[in-house]
Amino acid sequence: MLVLTRDEAQTRAQLIDVHRYTVALDLTQAADPAGETFESRTAIRFSARADGDTFVELKPAVLRSATLDGQPLDPAGLDGNRLTLAGLTTGEHELRVHAAMRYSRTGEGMHRFTDPSDGETYLYTQLFMEDVQRVFAAFDQPDLKSVFEMTVTAPESWTVLANGSTEHLGGGEWRAAPTPRISTYLVAVAAGPWHSVRTEHRGLPFGLHCRRSLAPFMEADADEILDTTRACYDRYHDIFEEPYPFDSYDQAFVPEFNVGAMENPGLVTLRDEYVFRSAVTDTERQSRAVTIAHEMAHMWFGDLVTLRWWDDIWLNESFAEYMGYRTIAEATLPQALHSVRAGDTPSTDPWTDFAIARKAWGYDADQRPSTHPVAPDPAAVPDTASAMLNFDGISYAKGASALRQLVAWLGEKDFLAGINTHFARHKFSNATLADLIDSLAHATDRDVHSWATAWLRTTGVDTLTAKVNHAGRAWTLGIDRDGGRTDGRPHRITVGVYDRDLAGGPALVLRERFETDIPGTTTVERDGGCPALVVPNDQDVTYAKIRLDAASQETALTALSQVPDPLTRAVLWNSLRDMVRDGELPPARYLKAALTHLPEESDLAIVQGVLTFATAHITGRYTGPGERPAALATLGELCRDLIRRTEDGSHPGLRLTAVRAAIDIATQPAPLEAWLTEGTVPGGPELDPELRWHILTRLAALDATDEDTITAELARDPSATGQEGAARCRAALPEAAAKRTAWDAMFATDDLSNYLLKATAQGFWQPEQADLVREYVPRYYEDAVTAAARRGTAIATVIGGFAFPAPLVEAETLRLGERCLRDADPTPALRRRLTDQLDDLARALRVREGHGTA
């Protein structure tokens, strides 16, 4: 397949304008498992500004016919995914294409899923970047916007959803209202026997849709989801002058979705794990709300105003990420998201969750060799294959952090004025970074162009190091940036100053907060005795690693839980996390701090973030085999403390978090077997399907279950989630035959869907089974390259992420991986994943060596 280059896109955009697509899809045989294709008919009306040649993209199973202005085109003109349109003359043209297109099991193009719970079939499109070609012929680039008219014929009992409101014409035929001008990658269709909940808000139709087997769970949460959607809609209309630009707002929760959600105008698709069928924590409910807010923000950032080329993907994702968290923090939300069940852990400020979870994603990505600027130079994104690599923690978390810093530096009023100018100038069109900066500059006297160069065109994480000196009744604070650099990014931060509580007790009290700018080395003089704790970036408004002065660091390690503000505690936990990753703090010391402070922690996001880092990284990677039992014992003691704290039935979210972590780090099967037999953890929670599969996976890794038990559990829960749970458990069994079967399923055939492949990969590599699976490490690098080339980008991402032998933190794993990158020519998507994985592996080896745990 030929990837589209930026130069080709520019040339085509200079030659043609696209006016209207009329697309007809025949999905009537979709429920037949023997049917591998559907019929796609497309008419494209476009005009040429000059005489010339161009091409249209499509990836058919069979090209049945193609005509240009009524004249047949030679099928031999289809070269891979490009159909040549030669000899165009200036003026109007119409291209008609009829093709049979393949259904997908990888979450790309027209994905087909049959629900094992009831046998019902569902279809949805995911057309991002270059996958519209899998569904209909298109001039597939974001700056050739057009009106789309969609007609879909489906089984009579189905409902069809699309970007515009749909009308059932009878006989299974559905017609969608024509869209405004949108980009090809934003076109969407979802078809199946959906369970739907519909309402209106301010005259606009709202809808929620899910598989029928999930209907009871959707109904239980429908009010919360719709209330969140209404609140976000109202908040965006408070701050954006442009009204919502489409005729309806549907949210379809779809199976086997590769990402969290997709911002298709009028028809947002979300992974159906957001329809909670098992117990979840309040932070997980809040994460769903943030996703809803994020996708709605895209209706303006990305759909109304769209990037011209993929180097500006941050214009979509960074803004939606920032607005998602900001809106959930500001909007009037359902009571369930503000103060959940009586007695539960206080709900998390979304910015605390962002600090402890999302920013870590950005910091990690920005310290790898694959890092890139938030807004890369256009030359660094020459084609769609390279563009796909930039959907990462930089385009999302770092970009959102940069925007939060921009608001602090620019001011709220000028920021919103600039954004609204941007919408007005470029609505239903395309824009670049330069266009956005010009709109912001129009609203302020500040040098936005220099700010953008410093923040958006550079890579890496600044480190802000505090130096406190005490002299009599005064003290001075120096904040050093990266060894005294005076160029680079400006930072506007808040500094928090804390004292011990003079009334006695261990608590820390806030003495003052003050703002300071850091163009280089900054020294601040303050009156009063030397404080117990000084926290740069106290409110986490900038994006930087923080290093405390020696006295403050000791206070943080011994009294972190006594800091009154959860956002400040998140900043401190992030500093300790960074120190472990950089080899400056022993992993065991981090675990000791977690054991000391998490039982006193009131913010659930912090508990989850610290436990995740401790289990996935410290015990999973940074601690050698000799020290791992002690690390697991410390974490086990911590989990027991958290469970004891909640045995009175209070704080169910905290209890659920502790139970999940206890399962992950269990070294003895007996307690888990008892929970599974009783169907409950003593004192709760009762085991729902998710927890049962969670326990069974760990028992499989510990060689404490067998195929018969897994089969019986699958009979108990035959759902799609149950199928994934069974695949995960079977791959985790410490038996040579089970490993061979799992390996062949992942790499020898294309039978596994994206989700079943992910589940199998998650089960395969277990730290306790290093000796059993070590022989598969060299095979991984060989088979991953072959499978990624054969199955495409989505599967390459799964293989490079979940199937990587992460628990085998060994020099040989690194050496073989480096050889693979050098000699095996992996696809761009796989190369990017392997580059990141190998850098993380090298870091883990350094941490072990630095603390004598190799």
Could you characterize the architecture of this molecule?
- The chain is 43% helix and 21% strand.
- It has 28 helices and 29 strands.
- α2 crosses α3, α6 runs parallel beside α13 and α16 runs antiparallel to α17.
- The chain starts with 5 loop residues before the first helix and ends with a helix.
Précis, in short:
The protein is 43% helix and 21% strand. Helix 15 packs parallel to helix 17 (652-665), helix 22 (736-747) packs antiparallel against helix 23 and helix 26 (793-801) runs parallel beside helix 28.
How does the SSE layout of this entry go?
Elements: H1 6-15, E1 16-26, E2 37-48, E3 52-57, E4 62-68, E5 71-72, E6 78-79, E7 82-88, E8 91-102, E9 109-114, E10 121-126, E11 147-153, E12 159-162, E13 166-170, E14 173-176, E15 189-192, E16 195-201, E17 204-210, H2 215-239, E18 249-254, E19 261-262, E20 267-271, H3 282-298, E21 305-307, H4 313-330, H5 335-338, H6 350-366, H7 384-387, H8 394-410, H9 412-426, E22 429-431, H10 433-442, H11 448-456, E23 463-471, E24 474-481, E25 491-500, E26 508-518, E27 522-527, E28 533-535, E29 545-547, H12 550-559, H13 566-581, H14 587-597, H15 604-622, H16 628-645, H17 652-665, H18 669-678, H19 689-701, H20 707-716, H21 720-732, H22 736-747, H23 754-764, H24 770-773, H25 776-791, H26 793-801, H27 811-823, H28 828-850
Parallel strand pairs: 1-11, 17-18, 18-20, 21-22, 23-29
Antiparallel strand pairs: 1-2, 2-8, 3-7, 4-5, 4-8, 6-7, 9-10, 10-15, 11-14, 12-15, 13-14, 16-17, 19-20, 23-24, 24-27, 25-26, 25-28
